[in-house]
Each structure stands twice: as structure tokens, then as C-alpha cells.
Amino acid sequence: MKKGDTVVQANAGTRRFRRVALLVAAALLGATMTTFVPAATAETSSRVGIACTAGVGGGATTPIFNLTTKTGYISLPDGNTAFMWGYSSGFGGFQHPGPVLCVNAGDTVTVILHNTLPEDASIVFPGQADVLANGTPAQPQLTGAGTTTSLTNTAAAGGGTVTYSFVAGDPGTYLYESGTNPEKQVRMGLFGALIVRPSVLPTGGAGGSIASEYANNRADSRFNPSEEFMVLLSEIDPYQHQAVENNKSFNMNNYHPRYWLINGRGFPDSIADNGASWLPTQPYGALAQVGEFDRTAATPDQPGMARYLNVGTEDFPFHPHGNNGLVVARDGRALEGPTGQDLSFEKFAINIGPGQTWDVIFKWYDAENYSPSNPVPVTVPQMTNEAIGVFYSGSPYLGTKETLPPGIQSVNQCGEYYIISHNHALFQITSWGTNMTGPITYMRIDPPTPNNCG
Predict the structure, then answer these.
(1) SS3 26
(2) What predicted TM-score, i.e. pTM, was given to this entire model?
(3) Is residue 158 in a domain?
């Protein structure tokens, strides 16, 4: 790790940079990549979008998840690595962030925590009611003097276990995280996402639709399940992580993040596929890949869905360029009045506070229907006067590719568009001073089908 003008490298003889490459775009858009499954628990297989971890054992409405605390390293955009703690899936290797747990409202969910860390650890489930620990109501843990040591029951250091269970509540997006010394353990990486889907079709739901196509129990929350994405925002103070790695104390009065991540990665790794082979401990990509919203379809088209979560210590004003989002829920609760009034609202930037989650429906369409036969009302500069990026197709029109000058490298496949999405607090899109890294991703808009996007 860098430290001012010096270099502090803990365990230099045994640690090495795991950074393989910064330029991941070509691999992202190429042929199918090897999928990394971090543990025995099965992952929903998809190159982009949310990769749910399936429960093991139990019945259809009684999923069981095994989570194991592990230590490991993640790659950072400036070439450094960070020592982390994390919840692994099942009994597999370390991963960051923890598995995405997907369940249905009304399920009886069991999570068995296996703790390998040198101190007690736990899990709390904000937004879930009546959580049990080893079969009895989960309770804060106190010393004999009445000092709180944990917000819930713990698994003892070095091999202890604890079994949590709860009936999944309202459909929506939730965090799960350590309730033990959270200013240390959550910051070190003990967190993940819990997604609760509706178990029954909302009243007034569209004919032929299924419950999982809705963000919550409102009929107007329907989205396209193939366009569902996670935006999990977090931060790292490398001095804290180095202190923990070396079994030293850390003064939280000096806490100051230098890295900010999206789904456990920084840009450009953030736009790589789920399970990218060069990121073996960081399984979740953040690229959003959607089709143009069809406003004229005989069968109504459905929008996309973004699930935002903030596990950091300050607001993250995340801003997807090119479209407003309709906020339909916050903290796992649908935005509606006491008698069902629709209280959803549009936002240009999603200002997510610490510990909050926001469910946002979005759609992208060409409002003016520009095409070669309906050209943009401006003069497009000649190629010699353009600065050409690697995502440019050579044409301003969706689905159109044109010849680029010799020597220009392009990863554009089929005339698709790429629109940047990033945190609008610009100091947070750096990695210890390296600009244009951190919580940045893209929305890729593919032309209408049929197309040759591959």
C-alpha cells in the first residue's frame, strides 16, 4: 500500500499484486468467459446482472444458506491489493462482497454462520423482523457491566457457529452485515445483499406475468427480469485494513477512505463480466446491459431495475447518465401512502445514505428516433476532428457501425451505445488519487432485436 511518499508493504515476502490488467473492455465484450463460482452454493449463471446464490437444503419455501467468514485480498484499480474479511458462500474460498441471497417473501430463511476469524462475528438483517438465533430471539450481547459487545448473537472466534432464521418480510432490497464491532467488521468487508422477491402476483398484476417480475407488491413495479442489476457501494481505508492484517489496533478517529468500490470492484474492472477469471475473489460485475425500450410494442415492454445499496459511511450521489430513474422503494418498503397512493418519484441522481437501499426502475429509449434517415440536427465532426473512444461505433446512431480510421481500437460489437454511470462526488471516483477509477460503470444499450450483437 502507498503511504504518503513511502511504501508500506505488509508481509512483502508472501504478498504479490494480483492485478492482471486494467484494460478489461475487450475481454468483457468478447466470447463467453469462464465463470468463477466461489463456493459449493450454486450461483445463478449470467455474464451481467444480479447473480443470486441459491440456498442448499430445505424446501422450496425454507432455503438454507451457509456463510463462512474468511480472509483474503482484492485487487484495486491503482495496482494495489487490500486485505479483507468476507462472508464466503458455503465453505468455499474468500469472496468480496458476500453472496447475494435471493429469497421470496414469506420464506422461512435459515442462515448458518461459520466463523473462522480470530474474534467473534455475527450477522444482522436490517429490515427483517423477529430474527431467531439458535432458535431463540436474537439479542444484543452485553458484558457484565452492561456494555454492548454485539448487536446480536455471535459465532465464537476460531470455529464457532450460530444459526439465524427469520420469515422474509416485505419484497425489496436489503443489506446483511456484521452486528459485532461493525465499525471494524463491516468496514473490513462483512456485508452482502439480501433480495426478497414477491411470492404472489400483486393485485392487478398483468396477465401472463409472474411474481418475480415485480419489485414489490404493487402492480406498477413490474420490470424485465433480464435487466436487473445491483449497485452495491462501499469504501476502504487502507490503513485500517493494514492494521487488521498485522493484528494491530486502529483509531477510528483517523478513519478516512481512500478507495470506493461498486459491487466490490473499481473501474475498469467494474465493467467486466460476473466471474471474470482475473478477479477470482471479486465475482460481481456492475455493467448494465439493456435493450432499447420499445414504446410501440403490441405487448407492453418492461423497464429495467437497479437495486442500490450503500454500506459506506457517507452519502453516495450515484448518477446514471442518460435517463432518470423512478424510485419505487427505499429500505425494502414500497413508496406508497396509507391507502395505497403511488408515492414513487423520479430522480436524476440517486442520493443513497449510509445503510440505505433504493429500488429504481428505469428505461432507455431514443426520444427523437434519430437514425441515418432521421439525422441529428447538428453537423457531426469529421473523423479527423474527433477523439475516438474504444466504445465508439463510428456512428451516432444506435445499431449502425461505420469504418474507423486505421489504427483505432474499438470494442463496439453491433453499434451499441455506452452511457457512463458513476458516483457524482468526484473525489470518490479515485483510487488513492488515481482519477476515473472507483464506483464507475456503464449502461450498454443494444439495438432492437434481431441484431448481430452476439
Answers:
(1) helix
(2) 0.90
(3) yes
